[in-house]
Amino acid sequence: MSQTFDMDDDLLPEYDFTQMTVVARGKGRQNMSQKPMRQEYNFSHGKSGAIISSQRKTRITIYLDNEILEHFGEQAEAARMGYQNLINQVLKEHIQGDSETCLMESDLRRIFREELLALGKS
Questions:
Q1: Is residue 33 part of a domain?
Q2: Lesser CB count within 10 Å: N end or C end of the chain?
Q3: Which domain holds residue 17?
Q4: For residue 21, is it within any domain?
C-alpha cells in the first residue's frame, strides 16, 4: 500500500517529532517514556560549543601524516583510550622528560656511527 504525504521538507513520516517521546536511560534516572516532546523549545540562552568546558585543554586543528594517525589509532585501541588523549600523553611525557636522556633514533645512529669509526681508527 503506497501512501503520499504532503510535507514541506524531506523528512519521512516516521520522523514525526511531535509524536516522539523522551526516554531516559541509565541508573537512577526517572522514567520519561510517557512524556511527549514539546512543540517548541527555547534555545535563546543556549551556548554553542563543548558541553563540558575544559580549562586545561584547548581545541586546535592540526594536520598529521596518515601513518602517525594509524599508529596512534592502533595503540589507543589496544590501550582502550582515545587516540587524541594518547597523542597528548606522549607529547606531555616528551616535554616533561629529561632532554639529555631523551634520544631519537637518528641520535642513536649518529652516536653508534661515531663510536664505530673511533674503534676502527684505534
A1: yes
A2: N
A3: 13-38+63-121
A4: yes
What the block records as the C-alpha cell of 17 is: 517529532
Q: What is the pTM of this model?
A: 0.41
DSSP string, 38-98: PS----TT---S-SS--SS---------HHHHHHHHHHHHHHTS-HHHHHHHHHHHHHHS-
**Closest to 88 measured CA to CA, from 75, 98, 78:** 75
Question: Would residue 56 count as lying in a domain?
Answer: no
- The two most distant CA atoms of the chain are separated, in Å, by 94
Query: pLDDT 10s digit of each residue in the chain, 122 long?
Result: 455 555 455 555 555 666 665 555 556 555 555 677 788 888 888 877 666 666 788 888 899 999 999 999 999 999 999 999 999 998 888 888 765 666 677 878 888 888 888 888 76
**Please, which contacts does 85-94 make with residues 24 or more away whose CB atoms are closer than 8 Å?**
88/57
Amino acid (1-letter code) at residue 98? D
Q: How many domains does the chain have?
A: 1
